[in-house]
Structure formats: structure tokens, C-alpha cells
Design brief:
151 residues, mainly alpha, two-stranded antiparallel ribbon, 7% strand
Length: 151
């Protein structure tokens, strides 16, 4: 779409963001840093979804025995989420237990990327079809004007 206007691009970006957020809410990710990090961008004829780096881990999951998540990252996450360890253990001990659980069991994938891609393609296809329709209408109108003008 080489002649896409800034206004249409903004509308498409907004629609893609809203659709992505609605899909993530169905996966119980509504009030999370992930949903707040979602940003669609359009540059060089590409539509790109930007999100926190753990987006891929939530979507793809994490296989058991994969590289261990650093304890300090889990401690930061616990504090940010205001998750308090029991009175008889420290943040480091709780983070270590979580680290080992993820290492042994892994993380189940959520698989929300495919629905986001499907909806995004539907949205983009609709805009492209409308744009092409107007281009065809304008070309037919121009051709008719030239033909009528010759008579």
C-alpha cells in the first residue's frame, strides 16, 4: 500500500492494538505489563508487533530442563507483583523454588500469537480491499470521463 495516508495508518495501528489486547484478555493477560507493552508499528511497508521480551515465552512456553531463569530476575518479579514469601522463607528462597519448578516442569504455552495473526490479517485485508476498491472506482471514473469526452 504505497499511498497509505497517515490517518489511515493511525486507524489501522489503533485497530490492531485493540484487537491484540482483546485476544490477550481472553488468555487472562488483561491487566499485565505484557498487554501494556503491546505496540504496533508501520515502517517500510511492514506491520510489526512490539511487546515485552517475555511475550515469546508466554506464547511458546518453556520446555523443562531449559536454561534456568536468574534468581534476581524472579526476585524483582515477585516484588513488582507484590508477592510476599511466607514468614519462614526469604525472597531468594522463594525465587529459587520457582526457578527450580520452571526448570523441572517448564511453562505451558498459551498460544495466543496465532489468533493475533489471524485477526491482524483480517483487519489489514479489509483495509487493503477497501483501498483497492477505491483505486479501481477512481480509475473507472477517469476512463469513463476520457471516453465520454471523446464523443
Amino acid at each position: 500500500m504505497p499511498d497509505i495516508t497517515v490517518e489511515v495508518t493511525k486507524n489501522i495501528l489503533d485497530e490492531l492494538r485493540v484487537a491484540s489486547n482483546l485476544i490477550l484478555m481472553t488468555y487472562k493477560l488483561g491487566d499485565t505489563d505484557l498487554i501494556r507493552s503491546i505496540e504496533w508499528r508501520y515502517k517500510d511497508n511492514l506491520w510489526v508487533l512490539w511487546a515485552n521480551d517475555y511475550f515469546k515465552y508466554l506464547n511458546d512456553g518453556r520446555r523443562p530442563s531449559a536454561k534456568k531463569i536468574p534468581v534476581h530476575i524472579l526476585v524483582s518479579w515477585l516484588k513488582k507483583k507484590n508477592i510476599q514469601p511466607r514468614t519462614n522463607i526469604t525472597y531468594n528462597q522463594l525465587a529459587f523454588a520457582i526457578q527450580n519448578s520452571i526448570y523441572k516442569v517448564g511453562i505451558q504455552p498459551r498460544r495466543f500469537v496465532d489468533p493475533i495473526i489471524r485477526v491482524s490479517l483480517d483487519i489489514l485485508s479489509e483495509y487493503i480491499a477497501e483501498d483497492l476498491s477505491w483505486q479501481i472506482v477512481n480509475q473507472i471514473a477517469a476512463d469513463l470521463t476520457i471516453t465520454i469526452g471523446k464523443n
